[in-house]
Amino acid sequence: AGRPMSPAPLREQAAAFLGVLREHDFRWAFIGRWLLVLGYFAVVGYQLYILQDHIALPAGLEPTEAVAILTPVSAITMALSTVVGGVLSDRLDRRKLFVGVSAALSGVALLIPVVSPTWPGMLVFAAVNGLAFGCFMAVDTALVTMVLPKAEDAARDMGVLNIANAGPQILAPFVASAVVALGGYTPLFVLGALLSVLGALAVRPIRGVR
Predict the structure, then answer these.
(1) CATH assignment of 23-201, among 3.90.226.10, 3.40.50.150, 3.40.30.10, 1.20.1250.20
(2) How sure is the predictor about 198, in pLDDT bands with cuts at 50, 70 and 90?
(3) What interhelical angle do 24-44 and 185-201 show, nearest 10?
(4) In the predicted model, what is the mean pLDDT of residues 159-187?
(5) Residue 118 in 3-state DSSP?
(6) pLDDT value at 2 more than 80
(7) Do residues 117 and 66 make contact, with C-beta atoms less than 8 angstroms apart?
C-alpha cells in the first residue's frame, strides 16, 4: 500500500481556496457584496444606539420598543422583495440591473435618517432598506452562481463568497464605533450610503452576466 499523502501546507490550501478571486467577474461580485453588507450592518448593527442618541422618538416609546417595531417592518419588506426581485430578475433575464438598482436604493435608504432624524423617518428607512437588501441578496446570489468559473468547485467558491457575508458583519461594529466616535451618527449613515453606492458600481465591470 502506498504511503498516505500528507496534507498540503496551509498557505497552499488558502491560495487554492481564494484562487477564485483571480477570476474577473467573481472578484467584482465579491467586492460588491462585501461593500454593501458592510454598509448595511454598520448602520443596522448600531440601530439601538441610533434610536437612543440620534432619533427623536415619540413620547413613551423606548428605544428597545422601537427596535422591536423596526425589525419586523424591515423583515417583511425584505421577504417581499426577495421573492418579487428574484422572479422579475428571472423573467427579464437581468441580474446586474437588479443588483445595481437595489444597492443604490440601499444607499438612498441610508440617507433618509440624515434628512429626517425622526421616528417616521426611521420607519421609512427600515421599509426601504429591507426592500433594497432583500432584492440585492436574492439576485446577487443568482448572479454569483452564473460567474462561478468551474462547476466542480462551486461549493468551495460559494464558501469564498460567504467571506463577503461574514467578514463585513464582524468588521461592522468596529467601523461603526470608530465613525461615531469621530463624527457622530450622520457620518455613519453617509458612510453606509457611500459603501452601498460603491457596491452598486462594483457590478458594472462584470462581463459574463447581463
Answers:
(1) 1.20.1250.20
(2) very high
(3) 160
(4) 95
(5) strand
(6) no
(7) no
The answer to whether the beta carbons of residues 67 and 43 sit under 8 Å apart is: no
Instruction: Please write the tens of the pLDDT for every residue from 81-139.
Output: 999 999 999 999 999 999 999 999 999 999 999 999 999 999 999 999 999 999 999 99
**What is the reported pTM?**
0.90
Q: Which residue reads 457584496 in cell numbers?
A: 33
- For residues 42 and 170, give the distance between their C-alpha atoms in angstroms, rounded to a whole number: 10
